[in-house]
Every structure is written in structure tokens, then in C-alpha cells.
């Protein structure tokens, strides 16, 4: 069993900051790419940012220069630092991790339960 638990969402004013965390636990042999997705009402879920086990990152264009993804491999945790937040960043944010449970398993994708981020004055 593998669990991803997110935290750090909330209500923030435009221009403010939030830091999301996502910790993976359970039967984990190794973790490959970890990422953050978001889904706004009436829209499809989209990739916000991702980071490989080696630290390479990629971002969707709308968050470049404002959001920073990082990870602590010792803690099996991925973070998303969100600065200069805009109302259009309002969404449920989900983390996803590619996890291998043992050397006999391939990597499978696991999702967190989601955390609400609301940017409003």
C-alpha cells in the first residue's frame, strides 16, 4: 500500500504565497518523477510542475517564474512553493508520484487526495 498526503492549501489574497507539501508513505522501494497537477471547476486536470529523481524540473508556462517545485528524497516528499498567486491559480491541487514498491514491480502512478487553493480578495 502507498499513500500520498497533501497539505498546505488554503485561502490567500492575490499576490500572496502558499507552500504545498506531499508526503509519500507505505511500501516504497523507489520514487521516480513527482509532480503537481491542478483542476479548476469546469476544466481538465493539468500538469503544473514536475521533478525527476535527479532534480530536473519542468513547469507549465503560466506558472514559470512564480512557482518552484522541489523534493526531499530522504523524506519522500515533494513541495510546491507558489508565489505571486493570481485568481486564475484557484483550483484543487493534486500531487502524483511514480512509485516502485519493490525491485519486482514496475513504476505505477499514485495520486494524493487533493488540496484546495483559493486566490481571492
Précis, in short:
The protein is built from no helices and 11 strands.
Describe this structure in words.
The protein is mainly β and 121 residues long. 0% of the residues lie in helices and 56% in strands. It has no helices and eleven strands. Strands 2, 4, 5, 6, 9, 10 and 11 form a seven-stranded mixed β-sheet that branches. The protein is elongated, with a radius of gyration of 14 Å. The model has no long low-confidence stretch (mean pLDDT 97).
What structural keywords apply?
single chain; mainly beta; 4-stranded antiparallel sheet; 121 residues; 7-stranded mixed sheet; elongated
Put simply, the count of helices is: 0
Indicate the structural class: mainly beta
Low-confidence stretches: none
Q: Bin the strand percentage.
A: over 45%
Q: What is the count of β-strands? A: 11
Gap between N and C termini, in Å?
40 Å
- The rounded Rg comes to 14 Å
Amino acid at each position: 500500500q502507498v499513500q500520498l498526503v497533501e497539505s498546505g492549501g488554503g485561502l490567500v489574497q492575490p499576490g500572496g504565497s502558499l507552500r504545498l507539501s506531499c508526503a509519500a508513505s507505505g511500501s516504497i522501494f523507489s520514487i521516480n518523477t513527482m509532480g503537481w497537477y491542478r483542476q479548476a471547476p469546469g476544466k481538465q486536470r493539468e500538469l503544473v510542475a514536475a521533478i525527476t529523481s535527479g532534480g530536473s524540473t519542468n513547469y507549465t508556462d503560466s506558472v514559470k517564474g512564480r512557482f518552484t517545485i522541489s523534493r526531499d528524497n530522504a523524506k519522500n516528499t515533494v513541495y510546491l512553493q507558489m508565489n505571486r498567486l493570481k485568481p486564475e491559480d484557484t483550483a484543487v491541487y493534486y500531487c502524483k508520484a511514480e512509485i516502485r514498491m519493490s525491485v519486482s514491480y514496475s513504476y505505477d502512478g499514485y495520486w494524493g487526495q487533493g488540496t484546495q487553493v483559493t486566490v481571492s480578495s
